[in-house]
Amino acid sequence: MLIFIKLILAHLIGDFVLQPTKWVVHKESNKVSSKYLYLHVLLHFVLYMLLLWDLALWKMAMVIAIGHLGIDILKLYTDPMFKNKSIPFFIDQGLHVLLIYICVFYGDLSGRTVLLFQDMDWYLVTAIVFVTYPAAIIMGKVLEGMANQIETDHKSLPNAGKYIGMIERLFVLIFIVIGRWEVIGLLIAAKSVFRFNDLKERNNRKLTEYILIGTLVSFGLAILAGLLYMSQYH
Fold first, then answer.
1. Is the domain of 96 the same as that of 133?
2. Are residues 167 and 210 in the same domain?
3. In Å, what is the CA distance from 30 to each residue of 25, 42, 77, 92, 211?
4. Does residue 49 register a pLDDT over 80?
5. Torsions phi, psi of 149, nearest 5?
6. Residue 110 clears pLDDT 70, i.e. is over it
7. Most CB atoms within 10 A, among 11, 155, 217, 223?
8. How many other CB atoms are there within 10 angstroms of residue 58's CB atom?
9. Which domain holds residue 200?
10. Mean pLDDT, to the nearest integer, of 67-84?
11. Does the pLDDT of residue 77 top 90, yes or no?
């Protein structure tokens, strides 16, 4: 597992810390002709070897570096097919992690994967999934009648409220799991401070009540998920 973590660290450093924007732009423009594409892969190989610090693992590092090159080339040529550029980015990163995982555990890949799933905390996974999109949909149904009475704010970012809600519920769930209930109060206070000036300027009672109800429902769903998760230990 330590080898896997070291290789992931090398990947993070090579892809995000030591890759200038200039390289990214040049690769996107020149594709396989870009010198920075190969320099980027060479940098990854060097980072793999430095962090592994074991010459006996050079073949693994080489295979991962070559695989990295193939994945990057695939992304460069398929990227224009996606309107949402975050999709190829996450697919690309997922493939890199999968490649490292396969190369590290290739000796017992099936056994290691089965063990990984067996040891996974499925209660926590279910709670995490619940507080994201399912909770957002539930909130949408609960507040649907009220939302029709609120004027749409065209200055807001698209779906900003939905994603803010998901993030805050994830935070609440995390704080419950680690037993830091007091931080949830600070989170509510912080959100209230940020909302105060906005609501004060609009002087809209309906909007204030709508946001308050939405906040309470959001936190309530996250707390419910957290309590149900923790109940398995009692």
1. no
2. yes
3. 9, 18, 11, 18, 49
4. yes
5. -95, 0
6. yes
7. 11
8. 13
9. 122-231
10. 95
11. yes
pLDDT for 130: 97
Q: Give per-residue pLDDT as tens, 21-31.
A: 999 999 999 99
Q: Which residue has the tokens 């550029």?
A: 85
Same domain for 143 and 94: no
* 140 and 87 within one domain: no
- The dihedral over CA atoms of 220, 222, 224, 228, expressed in degrees to the nearest 10, equals -170
Reported as a single tens digit per residue, the pLDDT across 144-175 is: 887 677 665 556 677 888 898 999 999 999 99
Q: Which residue has the higher pLDDT, 186 or 159?
A: 186
Q: What is the pLDDT of residue 153?
A: 56
Look-up of token digits 């690769």:
27
Tokens of residue 109, six digits? 């890949």
Of the candidates 149, 168, 138, the one whose C-alpha atom is nearest the C-alpha of residue 207 is 149
The pair of structure tokens assigned to 81 is 């097919």
